[in-house]
Amino acid sequence: MSLQVINSPFNKEQTELLNQLLPTLNEQQKIWLSGYLAAGTDSGSGAAQEIEAEETAVKTRHVTLLYGSHTGNCQALAEDFSGRLKENGLQVSVEDMDRYKPKSLKKEEDLLIITSTHGDGDPPDNALSFYEFLYSRRAPKLDGVRYSVLALGDSSYEYFCQTGKDFDKRLEELGAERFVERVDCDLDYEEEAEDWINKVVHSLGTAAEEKKGKTAPSPQAAGPVYTKKNPFSAEVLENINLNGRGSNKETRHLELDLEDSSLEYEPGDSLGIYPINEEKLVDQLITLMQWDPELSVTLNKDGEVRALREALLSHFEITVLTKPLIEKLEPFTSNEKLQEILASKETLQTYIEGRDLLDLLADFGPWELGAEELIQQLRKIPPRLYSIASSRKANPDEVHLTIGTVRYESHGRPRLGVCSGQCAERMEPGGNVSVFVQKNSNFKLPEDGSAPVIMVGAGTGIAPYRAFLEEREELGAEGNTWLFFGEQHFTTDFLYQTEWQRWLKDGVLSRMDVAFSRDNEEKVYVQHRMTERSRELFEWLEAGAYLYVCGDEKHMAKDVHQALVSIVQRESGRSLEEAEAYVADLRQQKRYQRDVY
Amino acid sequence: MTKSEQPSHQTQGPPDVMEKIKEDSRLLRGSLVESFQDSITASIPDDQTKLLKFHGSYMQDDRDIRNERKKQKLEPAYQFMVRVRLPGGVATPEQWQTMDELSDQYGNGTLKLTTRQTFQMHGILKWNMKKSIQRMDQALLDSIAACGDVNRNVMCNVYPDQSDVHREVYEWSKKVSEHLLPRTRAYHEIWLDEEKVADGREEEPIYGPVYLPRKFKIGVAVPPSNDVDVFSQDLGFIAVIEDDQLAGFNIAVGGGMGMTHGDENTYPQLSRVIGFCPADKIVETAEKVVTIQRDYGNRSNRKNARFKYTVDRLGVDWIREELESRLGWELEEARDYNFDHNGDRYGWTKAADGTWHHTFFIQNGRIKDEKAYQLKSGLRKIAGIHEGDFRLTPNQNVMIAGVTDAKKEEISAVIDEYGLTDGRQNSALRRNSMACVALPTCGLAMAESERYLPSLIDKLEDILDEYGLSEEEIIIRMSGCPNGCSRPALGEIGFIGKAPGKYNMYLGAGFAGDRLNKIYKENIGEEEILQELRQMFKEFALNRSEGEKFGDFVIRTGYVKAVSSGTEFHSS
């Protein structure tokens, strides 16, 4: 249809020119032209264009409606209102607060919150995580986000609508702009809720043309490069014990802030931590030797100087005894028994087992040993490496770790792993820890996202698989995934249980088999579960699956390896040698990767 | 109203989602088998939990650690409660021993005697459910229809003056219970590995494929004891004894305790007597009443679905006419009866047949061993020597019945050895107290109940002592939520939880379970509770009339108005 004065906003001259031009344009040219014209609408031309521009602006804004609901009222309202918003041409997504990724918060444009209040002013269960996130130090600045809150409650309670009030206040504190005043509803909430949504719809409609100009992030100034030699001091964001009450285990989930570190890592890499010795241990040692904790000692060849206490805390290893160390210290004591210990391998080994420097100094005095002299004999404290449990794509400025606490008693003293003990007892959120990234090219996801992946891990060996799945979720990788996990008890030791459950539901994880060794009379481990699924497991391998094993070498990886060889034997009719060759070939092709310790 | 004018099943609006779940369940099978095989979660899906109730089990979790576990990225500590079907609360010593052992092996080491005269076992993990139910089955116990939209455990009086009549009344209760059992073999297939019934080969002649709109409760009382709180039942039978013979039963319809805070369309209600039937007509009568509720109950709003709302909506007269029409015969006029109490009689009593009964005081029905009080072990030992039966009372206590003179001595020795109490050293208030389970396992609880009431009573006892009221029988009941498992609306003093540490306080129920109480204060904490009750107890001690019960006193002195029907429960 050609343009006429009556069916277009153009005058006669314009319509003639346009009618000449338009039929000559090909598709690409038309598209280009429409984009060109649309981009320049602020010059202010006809009314039709203005309307179009406004509609475009409406479409670019996105409304997120989050609900916290205990009895289902808020959920029902949220679902109803989302329909209403959509009818008004708005893009809306509705989510249960529990399902919402708080990290998306700073990207929100228009945020609507509908929440009830539970009990004595507490958030409903499914709002709790989001609530705590907002009130945590990790809550982002929300400049540019607009929001409004609808609160449901029961005025017979003292803290009427408290959760709604809290959200309202906190969002404001974080810099978000309240575009419709909060409404607090009593048990008979329907009318007031209706008023609120009408205001919201009205306001979103009229405010729509204020296009939000997202400023591009300013390029980061080139900062220092952090390495093993120059570790980054990362703030601890979160430190959780993953084991439930009554567990024999303690496994720490640590979240560290890497913002401004420009540290990069891939799933499968490790993070190094420089631990700090236990203060109590250092103090006991200094007291035993009657040294001055403030005495200056030389750290290294460069002549760096620290107070003795600080040096023992942060720079030297005092929890492990070695033969060279004992030999070096032997001349400083007149106690002949130390000679005897050093006389044979067996006596030395027996002594070293479960003892530390404090034991040695206490057991073999009197010493003629100065603090500086001791320091010169000690090893630098080595960093501990942990498989990273997060994907950087999913957590851009963070790194997560899964650390099993080592705790035992020996020779009359409770002992703690240096680093794991620090993580368990001396690493509060807000504190800092020195870290660096250790690449591990031998534990990497297949480049082809459609290749099947089998992951086997026990205990903290599960860590890199969390990173794998986070990464695959971000990438939208399509290949099947299968996780085998083992621990002691289902109820208390199912590490990251709710996360695997979510991934199973969302299809990021295709299947999962678990082995809890102490829940039944007969002990069941991951290799037993693999053997039970022998046929399918072999089919996966034949279909090109990548198999990963992570965790304890002595107790798990060896048994898993044997199970794997047996599975290949049984399912393919190969001989033992042939099956071993098959597995060796998998390894050669990088389809059998291990991170064992 | 004639048949052609029948109201539709759905009084308003579309059926509740639960109706669809039942309909699609293939007579209560659903996907329970598959759900119990899923090893990644200790829970089962939400819709399956609703079907599981019909099998006598609720999925619960330890709410004390729910938020803690959430932070730990662990799912809630899911566990299952199994409620036994035990008509009239009668169990053999062997059955007692089975439950005792099971609670140690798979449960949380305790047993709860419920306000409906049965055992509840808490804390069973998913993987142990089948084993638990199979062990119960070996002891001839089941949990079919102990929960769900069906007739629940049939209650029956445990304190007959005449043992023969009790036996007869109990047998009728059992027949009613058995007659109203669902006919589906789902329970036997799922838990007991019975061979599968071919599709379409089964039906539910009484219930139909969607069962009842809501739970249904039946209780049988033998005057003068109203221990079963017969008026709190959807359907109550009051035994009429003439010339030492059971003549039949008065029929009472439309009682129930549950309500929803803030929703005045919901309320507790007492049943109303509509007539009398001969003893041998009780099963038939029960069935027809159930079918009226099946056909006329509200299936679109579960909060308004109990039989009491059906009765109040259609009228007592209409119910009677409809019942008579379904029965094909007319009810006789109700006979006289008189209740004088609803509590238990503790200690040893001698029955007409010369045997002895002994009732133990079990605080809130919780059977457990504590360092200083080895209740569970003591009762286990008695179960090993007792030859009569155990009777779980509607007040959460337990009675050992049918003890011969010869055995009495042996049992008394065990009672002494373990110091098993008949409550005598407690105040009469404590002996007349009841609390539901509530936190941490009950998913509905808004406030503590079982874990809190004893300590509240400690404090009230001090006050009662001060005013010389320690031996005054006052019924005090607490529920963690308005569903009212401890029948709080029949407490002379009633508490219903609203939030942690906060309760609505009700006053003025009848001592014989014949009058509802009324709200006195909303949302108050312990300090205020004690303050209010101190004042009332003081006045009660000074100004009560001769023999006046506390529930009557608070009405006479104007603390609350008397409630004559549940429909006025909320009116001011």
Automatic annotation (TrEMBL), chain A:
CDD domains: SiR. It catalyses: hydrogen sulfide + 3 NADP(+) + 3 H2O = sulfite + 3 NADPH + 4 H(+). Its cofactor is FAD; FMN. GO terms for biological process: cysteine biosynthetic process. Binds 1 FAD per subunit. Binds 1 FMN per subunit. Pfam families: FAD_binding_1, Flavodoxin_1, NAD_binding_1. InterPro entries: CysJ, CysJ-like_FAD-binding, FAD-bd_FR_type, Flavdoxin-like, Flavodoxin/NO_synth, Flavoprot_Pyr_Nucl_cyt_Rdtase, Flavoprotein-like_sf, FNR_nucleotide-bd. FMN binds at residues 116-119, 152-161. Residues 208-227 are annotated as: Disordered. One of its GO terms (molecular function) is sulfite reductase (NADPH) activity. Keywords: Amino-acid biosynthesis, Cysteine biosynthesis, Electron transport, FAD, Flavoprotein, FMN, NADP, Oxidoreductase, Transport. This is assimilatory sulfite reductase (NADPH). It comes from Halobacillus litoralis.
